[in-house]
Amino acid sequence: xxxxxxxxxxxxxxxxxxxxxxxxxxxxxxxxxxxxxxxxxxxxxxxxxxxxxxxxxxxxxxxxxxxxxxxxxxxxxxxxxxxxxxxxxxxxxxxxxxxxxxxxxxxxxxxxxxxxxxxxxxxxxxxxxxxxxxxxxxxxxxxxxxxxxxxxxxxxxxxxxxxxxxxxxxxxxxxxxxxxxxxxxxxxxxxxxxxxxxxxxxxxxxxxxxxxxxxxxxxxxxxxxxxxxxxxxxxxxxxxxxxxxxxxxxxxxxxxxxxxxxxxxxxxxxxxxxxxxxxxxxxxxxxxxxxxxxxxxxx
Length: 299
Description:
Blueprint: H1 2-27, E1 32-43, E2 47-61, E3 66-69, E4 74-77, E5 128-131, E6 134-138, E7 145-149, E8 159-164, E9 167-170, E10 172-175, E11 177-182, E12 187-190, E13 193-197, E14 200-204, E15 209-211, E16 214-218, E17 223-226, E18 231-233, E19 236-237, E20 240-249, E21 254-256, E22 259-261, E23 263-271, H2 278-285, E24 287-289, E25 293-297
Parallel strand pairs: 1-2, 2-3, 2-4, 2-5, 3-6, 4-7, 5-8, 6-9, 7-10, 8-11, 9-12, 10-13, 11-14, 12-15, 13-16, 14-17, 15-18, 16-19, 17-20, 18-21, 19-22, 20-23, 22-24, 23-25
């Protein structure tokens, strides 16, 4: 009798161990390797991109999912087209689905991030890439990752947004977009060349690390923050004629070792920062060259 019980226990334990390994294999599938193809829609499992990836519609990387982009990958985004619209359904100034508006803004204000005489974001016909999971896009000095539109005559409004909640974007050339946003504190944007931008080069909605980038020619500011405290070190900012290099709206950013050159304002202050010695520190620890004003205040 005891022998039979022992045999049954061994069988049950074996089935349990085997079931564990089957469960583990099912729950953690291997990454999908994607190269020289098209992509649109929701990424529900890990992908690794290489070669040329043609983005034909919005991309949403879900929470818990990692998107890896290898050095030398070219991410080519359809200009003014979107076969899989996933975004734009938010309310601003009492207007529902604000980012689905089309046409040109006529009101003389900057509400909701759109200025007078600028086109609305028209998200139904413009692509956004939202990384709610993790982005691992690390190129190399001699083999950079490329993000650009497929237009033969590209503009600063060809595609809408790259938004990162976690991860790193490094050694990439990015252009023809409206907004690069950071929405998590565990985000690093470093060693990139960002240019020909519709709105803000980097909208730092977190304590993101922004190091060693070259950012120029944006329709609005090159780096923007609202009550956040990003770490902004050793970037080359400008030219950005008639527009600010950096906009500060509260918070306590660290701004050290940057060259701020040929902008309408080197730094535009919408609200006082939390540190009363901020102005002195910024003027001492950054280089301002050829701006209309080093620091301009609206209060």
